[in-house]
Write a structure and sequence with these properties.
The protein is of the alpha/beta class. Strands 3-4-2-1-5-6-7 form a seven-stranded parallel beta sheet, sandwiched between helices.
Length: about 350
């Protein structure tokens, strides 16, 4: 770990993305280790009575789902619902984050957050309505990108077919992930980032805004030289460590985790009021103040109506894109009329 991570965390500029490896140490409802990728693949193959030869989880899931049908939800429920969070999860959940994304479907970390976090927890599904990050750090979005064992009807993103469908019509929060990657420092824990949907959204946002991503970090026990070089192309640095190592570092650097208010004051100097001031009243004044810049605005792709007339000129309210583009534009005839009026007034004088 390094001072870059420490400073970003203390200022509330860190977002997490958790992969399967982060759930290591958490227990199922029967007090067994939560199965990770290969272990889950073996379980599904066995339940579908198919021989397992080391295939990836995505291929096994794709093959087993037609055989198991609705029973696959029961199997996943038995392993990923009512989990007991690991001690690492319990410690990590005490810290303040801007947002947390997860590729996992289990409920272990959300239990830890619900129990330990000083922020109010909001669990989001990948297609829920997107909301902006809470500038005051009171609320914490925990986004389950690939599905939630508690919401089987919404489906999962495991198989190549499901990844393909999500690429054709990206889930709302995957789009938001692409935007957040350019505006926050990310820590990827327990994932090798072999996630085509993630990279697709990064390139979509980069192309739309011409933005440059800031340095982020991926924490895994090991990575090959090719993997490390590939990550660097997206300005992601590999740190050879486990979640346990990261949590130990957090405890040494922050013996007492910062509160949302402390984090806010470090990130927004205008909130550093003296003890003699009415702090709550002062903070309410700035509650709805949000810094606006081109990078943080939603990219608006207006529908092509077959002509160059924007919706604003048809009676709709202006969008932020209209405002940035200085719409409405000055009309030539309007300018001529103004000039004639000014000329008449001047002659009368």
């Amino acid at each position: 770990m390094n001072n870059d991570i420490k400073q970003a965390l203390s200022e509330g500029r860190i977002m997490l993305l958790l992969g399967a490896g982060s759930s290591f140490g958490s227990l199922t409802q029967t007090r067994k280790q939560v199965p990770l990728g290969e272990e889950l693949a073996k379980i599904l193959a066995e339940q579908a009575q198919l021989p397992y030869s080391g295939e990836t989880l995505s291929r096994v899931y794709s093959a087993c789902r037609p055989i198991l049908g609705e029973r696959i939800h029961t199997i996943l429920d038995s392993y990923f619902r009512n989990c007991t969070p690991s001690k690492e999860y319990n410690t990590l959940s005490k810290f303040v984050f801007a947002r947390i994304y997860t590729l996992n479907i289990d409920d272990a970390f959300e239990k830890a957050l619900d129990r330990n976090s000083k922020q109010h927890l909001y669990i989001r599904s990948r297609n829920e309505k997107v909301s902006p990050p809470d500038q005051l750090f009171h609320k914490l979005d925990y986004i389950k990108l690939n599905g939630d064992v508690k919401k089987p009807n919404e489906g999962y993103i495991f198989s190549p077919q499901e990844y393909g469908a999500a690429s054709a019509k990206p889930p709302l929060w995957y789009k938001e992930l692409g935007s957040d990657f350019f505006n926050y420092k990310f820590l990827f824990i327990g994932s090798k980032l072999d996630e085509p949907l993630f990279y697709h959204q990064i390139e979509r946002y980069r192309g739309a805004t011409q933005s440059e991503e800031q340095r982020s970090y991926v924490i895994t026990p090991s990575a090959s030289p090719i993997d490390i070089a590939s990550l660097k192309s997206s300005n992601i640095e590999h740190i050879s460590a486990t979640l346990s190592d990261f949590v130990s570092w957090l405890e040494s650097e922050f013996p007492t985790p910062l509160t949302p208010v402390q984090t806010l004051k470090r990130s927004r100097p205008e909130y550093n009021v003296s003890a003699d001031d009415d702090e709550e009243k002062y903070m309410r004044i700035f509650k709805e103040v949000v810094p606006i810049n081109r990078a943080c605005l939603q990219i608006m792709n207006e529908r092509d109506s077959g002509n160059p007339i924007r919706n604003f000129f048809k009676g709709f309210k202006p969008t932020w894109k209209d405002i940035i583009d200085k719409v409405p534009a000055e009309l030539e005839n309007t300018r001529i009329i103004y000039e004639e009026i000014y000329s008449l007034l001047k002659n009368q004088e």
